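Annotated sample (chain length 779).
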Amino acid sequence: MLCCSCSCSCTCEKTQLKRSAFWNRICRKLRDTCALLANRPSLIFVTLVVCLILMGTGLAVVLTASSAAVSRSKDLAHNGMGNGVAVTIGEALKMTVFGSELLSSHVTQMPRCPDLERSWQTLSLDILSRINTQVVVQLELDFAGVIWKTWPPLEGELAKVLYGKDLLKEDVSREGTLEMMRQGVTAIVGPYQCTEGFSCMFTVNPLTLPAPSADYDWGCGMQPYNCSECWHSANRTKYWGQVSTMFNVDELISRDAFRLQSLSRDGYAYRLWQEETSINNLRAELAASRQRPEDPVRLAIQAYNLLWYLEIAPVDGWVPAWRGPCIAAVVVGSVAIALLVLWLLVSREQHSRLLHAMLPDQVLAQLQEGEGTLAAEYQDVTVLVGDMVGYTTASSQLSAGQVVALLNELFGMFDELAQRHGVYRVEATGDTLMCVAGCPVPDDPVSSAVRAANMALDMVRAVEAFRPSLEGVRVQIRVGLHSGPVVAGVVGKKMPRFCLFGDTVNTASRMEGSASAMRIQVSEATAALLRASGEDRFVLESRGFMNLKGKGNMEAFWLLGSARCTSTGTSTATPGSITTHASGATTPAGADSSSQQQHRRAAMTCPSPCLGSGGGGTTAVFGQQPQQAAPAPSQTARFTPVRLTPGRGSNSAAASSASVPRSQTPYGVVRAATLPEVDRGQGSSPVAAAGAAPRDGVASPSHAVNTDISVDAAPSLKQPALLQQQRQQQQTSADAQTLRPAPAPAAMAPAAAVVVAGASRQMPRSGAPQSSVEILLSK
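Output written by the structure step:
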């Protein structure tokens, strides 16, 4: 259970770490993007314009297509489904008047009332057999405007009310009856709410028949009431009366004689209503769906004297169902494309900045224009080459991530200095930095040299104050300057690089390679330009002529700041050197030899493990602290770093400082006696003085001394197994320094590191030992 709990806890912690790293990357990218947009607000403006253009265009297309679809749908409803329903309603209305037309035809042939009385039943049954009796429910004869006969016959109270009712005598019906008589055509009147409980309408056929006189009654015994219009003397005709049929409107609708239900099945809402055309036909709604049609298509239906309107519209409206999603897609797509454009613009801006950082603006413009070979000659430029001391050793002792982090921090600081001084960074290869002033933008040679020198001084000062994120790491650099002509050009097609070519570049590299740690070495050409500037802040210290590889003898100078001091607080000027200010003033000093300058450089101190401490084998590891600190010695003493070089044929080292008191450690005591010098052997010492430069700082043979070293191991280190392991390591390492043990068997701890401290003084090539040093052993 405990193991499972621990496993789950570890899994959760790993998941949280992954999530935290992911969100950290996201937040970092957002911060970088926001910073870039703050510097380039035009990118946001372009993105908004693109978004508005895309959104406007997309919405216009969608709305136009939607409007066209609405037009097609309305046209289809009007000329298709709606028109078919309207035609059906008109035909159904015409069928309702068929019975009244048959009856009026029979009355015209046999107008006498006695004849009609005898044949009424037979005639009515014959007519009803020819029509739809579920729709046409009644036949009626109204002689002289009086209700005379109906079929089926009326019964009860209704018969008492209707039979004998004079339509011309009652004010409610007189006007309508006279209007139909005047028109003399078949008409449909209504709708009415009949006593049977349904909505009904009447088809009416007014009859005007030939008559011999105005008082002729066709044997019926009745005359039209107060009707001067009923006799037409001109054509000798008289108003006989009217025949009519009553039909059930609700039955027409419910039986789908009008095909209204088909509209509902097809997804249409409808409304059928009658327009007022006469006193007998008032405005009325005949039928409607549950949902009222919105923005309907209206179709007119005309039958006889009727004017009906059919209004239809889709239940979901005319707007197509795809318009809403399309509008949403246009908006979302426009925003997405705008964000993509913003991302492309930001990426392009980042790439542009990267290209501008890698290539000069002029060269980049020429490459974008498609020019081929790009090369130009610059007659007077100043090339600066900087290098980290001990980088090879340090990179082998640090992880790749630590090396990259260290270089990134350091070169980021140098990039800021280059931008500040107007110096173009050409390349950074490994730990080497190359910059140039006066190229690619030509400038005055003196001004170029001054800017390069100012950057070199600031580089040294910045490195002195530089505290990397890696604990226990100290950085040292060398800088070389040379002025002269160069050829600059872009090399490569897939990965073009702006490069400098010419002897000036090589000479600047030689200046850097022969310089000391934390110092700036300039050539005579650069020194002359700095003197010509007339500025007092540049102090030039002559080193004399130096034999440079591939260049021969060249005079070199140390470039010092006016306030520059060594780590111990003493002036950098040495006896025997001439300190020259850029203004032209010189400061003479006591005579000194070049070997003394070598000893002075070797004596420069570095308070903590640093680049330039050199070392390999058993020296303190650069950038790493011992896993266990060594106990303090019983006797404390001030230690001055020394330089050790192996001698041929003996275990010896060259010391370059005075003697030191011995120190006792729990792990043993190392005693070293200075011996006469012998020739230098092959290889390099596994023990190096802290602060000495690996490339420069080896004492000249005429002043070197040899130190014989012996080790007294502490009792805690006397382990036979470890002793045997140590001896095997000493035998298999060709370049390792052999430490002769004291008379008592001694074994060194596997993780022991040798820190050399002490001092020696100069001595001739032969003679008695003059000094001794002791080496502290610690884990």
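Annotation: The mean pLDDT is 74.
Annotation: Residues 196 and 248 are 10 Å apart (CA to CA).
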